[in-house]
Design brief:
DUF642 domain-containing protein, mainly beta, 43% strand, six-stranded antiparallel beta sheet, Jelly Rolls, disordered N terminus, single chain, disordered C terminus, globular, 28 strands, 1 helix, 369 residues
């Protein structure tokens, strides 16, 4: 009986160790929504006093543990999800160790809400990669946005760090952070029926289950590895990654909303044969999110341009557009952007949806458009 009890204890100990030994899975990080609270003895009001007080996280600097509905003067602090979030003061950071697979690509998704700072930014890093994400533009109407940032794992164990490099006079003017998640990215390969990768945008960052606001993909200048494999954001502002659970999507489960006019351009470089004629076909529409108006999506490739109009009623729907062009080089950059800025009645930024993009020789029998 004693031997059996020892065996059972050993098996139980082994099972409890398994999560530590396995690579992290897609979804929220351990205590990624900060709902597991610090002990009362580790808090001085809202300030977290101990480095390891927040379960699963290590902190440095002025970090606060904020409950939904907390007030700072006349300002009500918004917690994106659940009952709790953390706030990062000047030079403060949160860190978590991740066990990953060396060489694979990963995308981090997290929600952030501005507070009282004027020029809020966040530095997201996983050694040796880092990116500085400006969050002073609020795209949604709820007071927060979700952001994606990607990295390639250089080691089997890495540290994810979210750091506020702010220098505000009030250290309590930093951003709120919530709902930190991860997703393994598998960059799609080229196929015989398309010269573009990830044509339907199906491979992309983790979308939080209750995120009715989508996920922002930052410009390429702020992210060495795109969270949207195959594509880069070649502009000053972000594009929004949306899913069919919360938005109208022309094809499949995912699409991209061009939310910042000519300041958010989506691009990909394809192999082409000079002097050969190609057709760039794509779907444009609206996300069914109340974004109403006369929309125009501009497409560019080689010396060719096209402007495809779409009259949005804000209830969903799409149409096909085609740009035919002659390649002038062995590499051709295709670019999409929205001609106009659009806002919903609540003032939040919105725009046309792009999906189902194909690039083929015009002689190909499988061309859709």
């Amino acid at each position: 009986m004693t031997k059996m009890m020892h065996c059972a204890a050993a098996i139980l100990l082994l099972c409890s160790a398994v999560p530590i030994a396995l690579a992290i899975t897609d979804g929220l990080l351990p205590n990624g929504n900060f709902e597991a609270k610090p002990k009362a003895s580790d808090l001085n009001g809202t300030q977290v006093m101990s480095r390891y007080a927040i379960p699963q996280w290590e902190i440095s600097g002025f970090v606060e543990y904020i409950e939904s509905g907390h007030k700072q003067g006349d300002m009500l602090l918004v917690v994106p999800e659940g009952a709790y979030a953390v706030r990062l003061g000047n030079e403060a950071s949160i860190k978590q160790k991740l066990k990953v697979i060396k060489g694979l690509y990963y995308s981090i998704t997290f929600s952030a809400a501005r507070t009282c700072a004027q020029d809020e930014r966040l530095n997201v890093s996983v050694t040796p990669d880092s990116g500085l994400l400006p969050i002073q533009t609020t795209y949604g109407s709820d007071g927060w946005d979700s952001y994606a940032w990607a990295f390639r794992a250089a080691f089997e164990e890495v540290h994810l760090v979210i750091h506020n490099p702010g220098v505000e006079e009030d250290p309590a003017c930093g951003p709120l952070i919530d709902s930190v998640a991860i997703k393994t990215l598998y960059p799609p390969k080229l196929t015989g029926d398309n010269l573009l990768k990830n044509r339907d945008f199906e491979e992309g960052p983790y979308v939080l289950p209750n995120a009715t606001w989508g996920v922002l993909i930052p410009p390429n200048i702020e992210d060495d590895h795109s969270p949207l494999p195959g594509w880069t954001v070649e502009s000053l502002k972000a594009v929004k990654y949306i899913d069919s659970d919360h938005f109208s999507v022309p094809r499949g489960k995912r699409a991209v909303e061009l939310v910042a006019g000519k300041e958010s351009a989506l691009a990909q470089v394809a192999r082409t044969v000079p002097e050969k004629v190609y057709a760039l076909a794509f779907s444009i529409g609206d996300a069914g999110n109340g974004c109403v108006g006369s929309m125009v999506v501009e497409a560019f490739a080689a010396r060719g341009t096209a402007q495809i109009p779409y009259e949005s009623k804000g209830t969903g729907g799409y149409k096909r557009g085609v740009l035919r062009f002659t390649a002038v080089a062995e590499r051709t950059r295709v670019v999409f952007l929205s001609t106009f800025y659009h806002t919903k009645v609540d003032g939040s930024l919105c725009g046309p949806v792009l999906d189902d993009v194909s690039l083929l020789s015009v002689r190909s029998p499988v061309l859709r458009g």
